[in-house]
Amino acid sequence: MSRIKARFDALKAEGRGALIPYLQAFDPDLETSLALLKGMPAAGADLIEIGVPFSDPSADGPTIQAAARRGLQAGATLAGVLDMVRAFREQDNETPIILMGYLNPIDSYGPARFCADAAVAGVDGLIIVDLPKEESDLLATDAQKNGLDIIQLVAPNTPDSRLPYLLETASGFIYYVSITGITGTRTASRDELAAALPRLRAVSALPVAIGFGIRTPEQAAQAASVGDAAVVASALISTLATTLDDGKATPATVPTVLKQLADISEAVRAS
Question: Which residues are catalytic?
Fold first, then answer.
């Protein structure tokens, strides 16, 4: 059983939704981002999404775009991100890790080699935001061979007629992009979420994680109770950015972000 399935099964037995925080690898440097990664499970992360810095993050809003720039300036590479995961696995072999990124770095690395190396490093799932289902065969066979879940994105404007095609080979969980547009902008209302989820449930039994625009503990609790998980990204990155001094980490960076994560986790668990 994959770590992702095991974690969602355990949380379902507990009767609560999951919290999935996001961090941008190498933001603002390798040491700081690795410290955040290692601290997230104790702060309440049930699964963790790691962003792979990319020069043209078209799905992301200005907050995560700035984080990607900082990560690239700090020397981030795809191989370096896998080394981060490998270091995390030295102390944690249970928390699922999902890499979120864009196709170009994987294509340059070599899809077959990447899937093999990612699995060995301890990656559990992939979110490739610019890889349409029609071209997913570029990764699907190698991902499956190496036990990696390919997380399918579904948006509010995805037609019902397309859902069976999108989700027929999906695994791990469904990532519901709760708004149209880029990350970190507006937030979907509870009514919007409640109306959207039944059409996904009708097609797939996979857990549904809700992301894009979730910024507060209350919003995260709402998303995790309507769906099966809440993904919190820009809010944590924004907080990290406020702790930096001329783009560099300070002693406040790691504890401030982890305290915010713990506050969000408390709300999610209480819901």
Answer: 49, 60
